[in-house]
Amino acid sequence: MYMKADSVVIIPTYNEKENIENMIRTVFGLPQMFHILIIDDGSPDGTAGIVKTLQGEYADRLFLVERAGKQGLGTAYICGFKWALERDYDFIFEMDADFSHNPNDLPRLYAACKEDGADVAIGSRYCNGVNVVNWPLGRVLMSYYASVYVRIVTGINVHDTTAGFKCYRREVLETIELDKIHFKGYAFQIEMKFTAYKCGFKLVEVPIVFVNRVLGTSKMNTSIFGEALFGVLQLKWWSFYRRYPERKRTV
């Protein structure tokens, strides 16, 4: 039996031993109650072992799914979404383990959905200028213009189309056909937003400051950006032929 909460934060991990304990304790130190689900892809550095130890302290609200080897960010989140939908969470979050996403912003994303009517709340680096700290200029420009490109191709009115810090209302994940999500890497974040948009859900951006990781190693590389650039064209092409499920929730 676990302590009642209407929200779960899904955090995929691969070799995050430097960050994971501090991240878990920070989220659980917030005034608002959140559960945490860690999806660990067989981290050889012992990340899952740290989580298991902490489960003794937070047995009622810290959960772990261990998978064999690196299977991709997208499949980790799909696994987490299905896990959450099998339980009675109303709000389901995506968040990185490395503190590039500030846990103190979780209540703001929650409020955007719970109180302000958003179906998907996006922690946005670019809706209020460029709020990125400690990234090389080249990477900032690549990320920023990738989002501009996605916005032009897809027609989504979202400034940070590649953002990975999000809150979903349960109804969004119930409506999106999760098994039809194609991409596993960087383009996964774009595909999820695009599909929610095509299903008629309301996407809202909440300004955040994104800080490059201090500890551990980044999983980002140029091939991930390549997937996003070409994947967007595929998404747009598929959308001409696909019939998207319609939202069932009434406002």
The biggest beta sheet is recorded as: 7 strands, mixed
Number of strands: 9
Could you list the spans in which at least 5 consecutive residues all have pLDDT below 50?
none
Q: Characterize the overall form.
A: globular
**Helix percent band:** 25-40%
Mean pLDDT: 89
User: What is the terminal separation in angstroms?
Assistant: 32 Å
Overall description:
The structure is a single chain. With 251 residues, the protein is an alpha/beta fold. It is built from eight helices and nine strands. The strands form two sheets. It has a seven-stranded mixed β-sheet, with helices on both faces. Strands 6-9 form a two-stranded parallel ribbon. Helix 5 runs parallel beside helix 8 (222-239) and helix 7 packs parallel to helix 8. The protein is globular, with a radius of gyration of 17 Å. The relative contact order is 0.16.
